[in-house]
Structure formats: C-alpha cells, structure tokens
Amino acid sequence: MGKITTRTAIIEAADRLFYQRGFEATSFSDIAEIVKISRGNFYHHFKTKDEILDAVISNRLVMTQQLLHTWDAEGATPEERIRRFIHILIANWDKISAFGCPVGTLNTELVKLEHAEQPHALKLFSLFRSWLCHQFELLGHDAAAVELSMHLLARTQGVATVASAFNDEKFVRHEVQLMCDWLTSFADAASSGEKNVGNH
Amino acid sequence: MGKITTRTAIIEAADRLFYQRGFEATSFSDIAEIVKISRGNFYHHFKTKDEILDAVISNRLVMTQQLLHTWDAEGATPEERIRRFIHILIANWDKISAFGCPVGTLNTELVKLEHAEQPHALKLFSLFRSWLCHQFELLGHDAAAVELSMHLLARTQGVATVASAFNDEKFVRHEVQLMCDWLTSFADAASSGEKNVGNH
DNA sequence: GTCTATAGATTGATAGAC
DNA sequence: GTCTATCAATCTATAGAC
Known about the structure:
Oligomer: homodimer
Number of strands of chain A: 0
Helix content of chain A: over 70%
Largest sheet of chain A: none
C-alpha cells in the first residue's frame, strides 16, 4: 500500500492536474511531463484517459475516507468534528482560491460533459454527506440530519466558489465564522432540547 | 440592436455551448455546426477563440443588466426583488441541474485556467452583488449590505453546485424556502428596527 | 462575407522493438 | 515495463479564391 510505482505516480500526477486545470484541459503530455515517462507508456497501465479518471476518483475516495477517520479520531465531540469540516475552507485556502473545491469542481465539470464517471465522482460528495449526517445525528437531530448535512455541504461549496472567483480570503473567514456560530447555536439547542431545523 | 448577423449568431451559439459544455471543451467545429458556417469564416469576425469568449461575456453582461432592470421594474419592494433573485434556482432548474450556474461555472473554469478573461467574467458576479447590495441597503442594512449580498450569492452558488451534482430538485426547493424565510426575518427586523446581521 | 484548402501543432491511442 | 515511431483525428488559425 502506497508503494511508488509508475501507476501510482500517474494517478497522483493526474489527480493534481485534473484538480488544477480540469479533466478535459489535462492531456497525456501534461501528465507524462511530470511523471517523466513517454506518452506511449500510459497504455500499459491504463487503456483510456477515462480509466485514469476512474483511478483518480477511487484514490480520492480512499484519501477522503482516511481524512474522515482522522477527524473521527481527533475530534472529541460531533460539534468539534463538524467544525473541522468547515475549517477546511481556511486550512486549504491556498488551493481553493486558485482551483476551487476539488470535489465540487470535478463534479460540475463531469455533469456538464455528461461523463460516465460523474456518478463515481458523486461518491466523494456522498462520503462527506454521510459523515456529516452521522455527526448531526449524534447531535440529536435524527429527523433533519440529511437536510442539515446537505445544507452545510452547499454552504461550503458556495463559499468556495464565490471566494475563489473574487479571490477574497476575508469573506471566507467571515463565512466560516457564521457557519461555526450556526453550528454552536445548534449544538446548544440540542443539549437544551430545543428544536432548530429551520433557518440559519 | 439585436440584429441577426453572423457575428451575433456565433456569439449566441458560443454562449450556449460555453455554458453547456464549458469553454475549453467547446470547439470551433461545434459552433460552426450550429451556425451553419465553415470553420474558416470565424476569423473574419473574431481573431481568436478568446475574442469570442470576450464577446460572449460582454453579451451576458448586457443581458444580465436587462434582467436586473426587469426585476427593478416588476418587484414592488426590495424584499420581493431579492426573492426574485433567489427563485432563479427554481425557475431555471432545468438548465441548472444539467449545466450548473452559468456565472459560477464559467468563473470556476476561467480561474482554473488562469484565463485572461476571468476578471471580465467576474463582472457578472459583481453585477449581481452590486444589485443585491443596493436592495439590502434599501432594507436599511447599509453597514452589512456587502456582506449580506456576498452571503446570499454564496448560498445560491452552493445550492446550484450541490443540487446539480446530486440532481436533487427537492433540495433546491427546500433551500430556496430557507433563504426566503431568512430574507423575511430580515425584512421584518428592518421594519421593526431590530438588528440581525449575524447568523442566518 | 463566405467559402475551400491547408498549415502546424496536439490530441488520444496503437504497434512493435528492446 | 519502457521506449520510439506512428496513426488518424481534431484543434486553432491562416491564405487566398470567389
């Protein structure tokens, strides 16, 4: 696991380029230049470009699951864990400002292209959603957990898109604060038995 | 104005395809097929593909301004006008579900490509932001008007991204309801002199 | 103003030597 | 497993006839 082979090197280079330039805008030449192999050598490891995309997504799914496990291990409370999620916007701001959210932008591109791999890429979103959903359930919001996780997913996506377009870090910090405040009012409501499913 | 020339036909076809497939993924052949001209004929009207993009963005800016004027004319109150903005998500759901938000997805793509036209495309966002800002000022929220318009911009962007990825119309309707409720609580607070700049 | 023909580069993909 | 050589298609862009 994690062994450095040509195959994994291709996947990692493709992962980076698909994120930074987009899937369509990335060519075999671009990847070959990074991995230092010839273009012809690709086809020993992958039959088509789509197969590389498939491997990249699968790899991202594994990495994402590892990330979520880390958050599970390090976050003491569900509130703290969700806060961790919200704070990716700040922690990864350098990348997000330049290339947007890796999950959101990939899905958007594949939806537009009606690409067969879009359902696969959607699983990245679903992973976060399921994890968030579980955290909200732990906060005692069983009924609204799905809506709440979708809501938070959308909030973070929107902030990434708008902040990246305007290149506005101050806005990100402000919105992260708003989401954390919202979360706190939420966790408090949970511990006091109050209901707060509506607006935020 | 609005005269049907080859030039305007190219712009309209390019506009549609840049939205539906993305800028990079659209070729001259694709546009030529719609406009029914030869590929060589493009260069009588535009020197480069980037010039077509520039013309498309300029055209979108004009159309957007017209849309905002319509909302100004038809909406009796700032609250009603903002509601109009929020409801594009439902009104244009067919397109948004298939291709995302035309403003957000174009900006995201051009940011990734570090394209020289990105600042031009950003003006589309700025148009909506300025207009929203003005509406919030009319609601008596002078100090927070910029933050509020950016916040609403991000909310709608996030909903478009996530709903398009999941192809979930129900989620859109739910989030539109939440945003409208938030707006109402806002307008009420304004008329009763209360402050509500924080969380939503 | 529109066309055909074509340049020159690049694309994804293949074949076969080593 | 990696290479070179190459294919056919496509790309943006140009030149020049009509």
